[in-house]
Specification:
heterodimer; A: alpha/beta; D-Maltodextrin-Binding Protein, domain 2; 2 domains; two-stranded parallel ribbon; 9 strands; 45% helix; 20% strand; B: mainly alpha; MetI-like fold; two-stranded antiparallel ribbon; 2 strands; globular; signal (chain A); Glycine betaine transporter periplasmic subunit (chain A); ABC_Gly_betaine_transp_sub-bd (chain A); transmembrane transporter activity (chain A)
Chain lengths: 312, 677
């Protein structure tokens, strides 16, 4: 009985969607998946929504940055997560070429900042304030950085101005750059197992802030002036004397999408997920062992009204 | 200056002190050391910043030249009727067709249509059928022992839940290896016949092997389209050069008598090539095929980044989840596949011609194996249509060791971290940092002169000039500092790999059991993707040069061990006999006879160790080194093709200079041996 209702529902949604797809191509819309869970489930949900609207979709594994080469030529169609913080340069370059278009914000906000595990609060009273962190910098020192504390920054390619920040705020820390985020989390896992001191760059939405107990350090709040104008902020002679900006996560697509799949392009532009939804999805997959497909299907059945609105 | 090629024996009577080679090397080292130590003081004393930093005004815009040239090639270049891109896309389609067939048969099943609208019209082969075919191949190529080994390898893939990914990887190997082998053979034959092609091809092969793949990934994606085919093309570019080299060597190595005999019976040029030369060179040619297989499997990770999927993708995504066990299992699946394919190809290379069965019998009787295997394939395929367990290995019967690795790692980390930290600090303070200071302190101008002088002294003025031009290119592209960091990291790692590897190799060369064990370890280290052990290494040694060094040493150890063992083994037993007769102790036997005789071979090993160390640069960038590898990586993330290729070329130039210098040394040491004999 439930099966029949589901069938009828699908048939109905197909019937509704049919006019929209009439001028759309039946070629598969190729959505890229990268090597982290959040992005894969995000892409899977978008694929499910498009399928509900009667489109042919295909998930294609592609490197986060290398995908732009495919998006420019139309070999790939949609990328669902381009982080303002890590993918901006590549995205700008691709959009400037005219072959890739920005499909708007994906609904989530990327937060990235210095992060410490909860057990450090005992050794370093006054956290999460950055001045308290600085006061116990020696707790974080290692043979290579002594007498300075060691801060593990993100890969050089992420930018983030941590070297400048340490200088501008007069912090007793040395910035060590990890080459990839896997190295970041490997160090965190190692320190967490030993309850050893560590302060490093983390970001959310991600499984790490859910798995490990801890908090982001509070720096003076970010403003554009703080980054551009040395006179603004605590240090009158230096820029970057404040925390990091938060940024949206963008969706991008091959420029030909509006012509080939006009209806789908509209749905993709409307499609969004929030940080909380993503956090719940990622924890259920990475920490509770639910498969990506099941998590995506669960989201689809719980949010039918939401995606129906995008389709119509 | 023919002085440089003189043997020391002939040099000896000339007493002029300035001609003594050790004095030249001492002077060069002292000068370099002095410049390295006092470069900063010199800069302050003369207020000449150009001494320590390459002046920006002199920097050549090599990056934008390369970017422009590539943009033209990818977007505008045309043969009149069609563009370069049309051509490469046509090639792409030609490769894709057979690839799709193989992949459908092994992994996905045959599909009608594309994407989510596709329907499966026929399922893939059963895992039992694939395993049986491989086992039968093992039996056919050699014996039941090999059949058992290959069978065990494929059963591992099924039991540890790696089957689906492994079949996708196998499909790309089955396409890339024949293309790489046949292409390499064709180019090799062409170079063998036409000397001009040979000369033009040599530097090109060097570049194909030493420019990191990341450097040219983006143009490849544009030209060949995003997906498995681009990955196959990148794989073939990387895996083909050894085949070309081996082909040239093998054809030249065919004994003159055989060629003569061919001529005397009146062979045409074509017959001489295909009926005489190629068959007699086949055993050596198979060594090349074997290299193509190994290098293809080395590329699995990078290929998975651009849409090839398979085991490489599993390793990467395990890494992102910090799932050490998952990474090890997927990584070992790559090793297992490499072992199976390697042993099979070697067995085929050595296979003795079989006695033909009596043609009077029926076809079925003459080919009992073939018929049995075919019967199993068909039977399991049909049975698989009704019983899914026969087609896909049941998921409930798979094993995983993930939890074990997780706990083991945690135990080591919690209990021994401090010990590791102490070792690390010692090595850093007394070895790495002094070497780093020395290399990064060398002012660019003196660096170019010094490398030129060294190359000239070892290999003559041509080599000297080439070294000056190549290191000049690096300096004028503004990459001197990063290049020196590269030289320091690779230099230190090669030193350590060599110091560990050569004694092990000598041991393996004199002891059969040691040889078997070490051989297996070295094979595993070389085919296990370094991404797999990167996480444990970072957990124990943190991000930094030391972790990078460990990764490089583990990977580059293989040739040091192999060549040393091979060198010791190929010593003429009569020489050792002579040593024993004249009353050598074991120590004297090793130091006076074995080592000098094995020296040329060991130098070749050094050469390969350097090459492998340089090819690990992109990996070291992942643990945060600030060298040329990082430059290539940054260029990739910023979509700056020119920057990537210029940095990639710099890596290649360092490799080529090192290669030529070490080869010249090997040649001299061989000449010395011959002069001595």
């Amino acid at each position: 009985m439930r099966n029949t209702t589901a069938l009828v529902a699908t048939a109905l949604s197909l019937a509704i969607a049919a006019p929209a797809t009439a001028q759309d191509s039946t070629d598969p819309i190729r959505i890229t998946t990268h090597d982290w869970t959040g992005q894969i489930v995000n892409a899977t949900i978008l694929a499910e929504v498009l399928k509900e609207a009667g489109y042919n979709t295909e998930l294609v594994q592609a490197d986060y940055i290398a995908q732009f080469a495919g998006l420019k030529t139309g070999d790939l169609t949609v990328g669902v997560e381009i982080w303002e913080t890590t993918g901006r340069e590549a995205m700008d370059e691709a959009v400037a070429s005219g072959d890739v278009i920005n499909m708007g914000e994906g609904g989530m906000t990327a937060v990235e900042e210095w992060w410490y595990p909860a057990y450090m609060e005992e050794r370093c009273p006054g956290l999460p304030d950055w001045e308290a962190l600085n006061a116990c910098a020696s707790e974080f020192s290692t043979p290579e950085t002594a007498p300075f504390g060691r801060y593990l920054g993100g890969p050089v390619t992420w930018g983030g101005f941590d070297d400048e920040r340490v200088e501008a705020l007069g912090m007793d820390f040395e910035v060590v750059h990890a080459g990839t985020d896997a190295a970041l989390f490997a160090e965190l896992e190692s320190a967490y197992q030993r309850q050893a001191p560590i302060v490093l760059w983390l970001y959310s939405p991600h499984w790490a802030p859910a798995k490990y107990e801890g908090s982001f350090v509070e720096f003076p709040p970010y403003s554009a002036e703080c980054y551009n104008d040395p006179s603004v902020g605590i240090n009158p002679n230096a820029a970057y004397d404040c925390g990091k900006p938060t940024g949206p996560i963008w969706k991008v697509a091959w420029a030909g999408i509006d012509e080939k799949w006009p209806g789908a392009a509209e749905i993709i532009r409307e499609y969004t997920l929030t940080n909380d939804e993503m956090g719940a999805l990622v924890s259920s997959i990475d920490l509770d062992g639910v498969s990506v497909e099941d998590a995506a299907a669960g989201w689809m059945s719980a949010n039918e009204a939401t995606w129906q609105a995008w389709i119509n | 200056m023919s002085l440089t090629s003189d043997t020391p024996l002939r040099l000896a009577p000339v007493n002029a002190w300035w001609r003594k080679p050790w004095l030249f090397w001492l002077a060069l080292f002292v000068a370099t050391w002095a410049f390295s130590t006092y470069s900063f003081a010199l800069y302050k004393a003369f207020d000449a910043r150009w001494i320590v930093r390459f002046p920006a005004a002199l920097q050549l815009p090599t990056e934008s030249w390369v970017s422009e040239a590539l943009r033209w090639l990818v977007e505008d270049a045309s043969f009149g009727l069609f563009t370069v891109r049309d051509l490469t896309r046509a090639i792409s389609a030609a490769i894709e067709a057979p690839y799709t067939v193989v992949r459908s048969a092994l992994a996905t099943g045959f599909m009608d249509g594309q994407g989510s609208a596709a329907n499966q019209i026929a399922p893939e082969l059963s895992w039992i059928a694939v395993t049986v075919v491989m086992v039968a191949l093992g039996r056919y190529a050699k014996d039941c022992g090999l059949a058992l080994l290959v069978g065990a390898c494929f059963v591992y893939l099924a039991v540890f839940g790696q089957w689906d990914s492994a079949m996708i990887t196998l499909a790309s190997v089955l396409i890339a290896v024949p293309l790489g082998a046949v292409g390499g053979l064709a180019l090799g034959i062409l170079a063998f016949r036409v000397p001009v092609v040979d000369r033009a091809l040599r530097p090109l092969l060097d570049l194909m092997q030493t420019v990191p793949v990341f450097a040219y990934l983006v143009p490849i994606l544009f030209l060949f389209g995003f997906g498995p085919v681009a990955a196959l093309v990148a794989t073939i570019i990387y895996a083909m050069p050894p085949m070309v080299r081996v082909t040239i060597l093998a054809l030249r190595g065919v004994p003159e008598e055989i060629v003569e005999a061919g001529r005397m019976v009146g062979c045409t040029r074509r017959q001489l090539m295909w009926k005489v030369l190629v068959p007699s060179a086949t055993p050596t040619l198979m060594v090349g095929v074997n290299q193509v297989i190994m290098l293809t499997l080395n590329m699995v990770i990078i290929a998975s980044m651009i849409g090839a999927g398979g085991l490489g993708f599993d390793v990467l995504s395990a890494l992102r989840r910090l799932d050490i066990g998952g990474g090890i299992e997927a990584g070992l699946a790559i090793v297992v596949m490499a072992v199976a394919l390697d042993r099979l190809s070697q067995a085929f290379a050595r296979r003795a011609p079989t006695v033909l069965a009596d043609p009077g019998q029926s076809y079925v009787k003459r080919h009992p194996w073939l018929i049995t295997v075919l019967a199993v394939v068909v039977a399991t395929y049909l049975a698989g249509l009704v019983m899914p367990g026969l087609r896909d290995y049941p998921e409930s019967a798979t094993l995983t060791t993930s939890a074990f690795w997780e706990r083991a790692m945690e135990y080591v980390n919690v209990n021994y971290f401090d010990t590791f930290e102490a070792i690390k600090t010692t090595v850093l303070t007394y070895l790495l940092l002094p070497i780093k200071k020395f290399f990064t302190g060398i002012p660019w101008a003196w660096g170019i002169i010094a490398i030129g002088l060294a190359a000239w002294k070892i290999g003559g003025w041509r080599l000297g000039l080439m070294a000056v031009l190549m290191s000049g290119f690096i300096a004028f592209s503004g990459l001197w500092d990063k290049a020196m960091t590269t030289v320091y990291l690779c230099g230190a790692s090669v030193l350590i790999a060599y110091v560990i590897g050569v004694p092990l190799g000598i041991w393996a060369g004199t002891n059969d059991r040691a040889n078997a064990v070490l051989g297996t370890i070295v094979d595993t280290l070389q085919t296990l993707p370094s991404f797999v052990y990167l996480i444990p290494v970072v957990m124990l040694f943190r991000v930094g040069d030391f972790s990078a060094m460990i990764a490089v040493v583990l990977y580059a150890l293989a040739p040091a061990v192999r060549y040393a063992a091979h060198g010791i083994r190929s010593i003429d037993p009569q020489m050792i006999e002579a040593g024993l007769v004249s009353g050598c102790t074991r120590r004297q036997l090793l130091w006076r006879i074995k080592l000098p005789l094995a020296a040329p071979e060991m130098l070749l090993g050094l050469n390969q160790t350097i090459m492998l160390a340089l090819s690990m640069l992109v990996i070291t960038a992942l643990v945060g080194t600030r060298d040329l590898g990082q430059e290539v990586y940054i260029a990739l993330t910023a979509a700056n093709t020119g920057q990537g290729i210029v940095a990639g070329l710099s890596v290649a130039f360092i490799a080529i200079i090192a290669d030529r210098i070490v080869s010249a040394l090997a040649k001299r040491s061989e000449a010395r041996l011959r002069a001595g004999a």
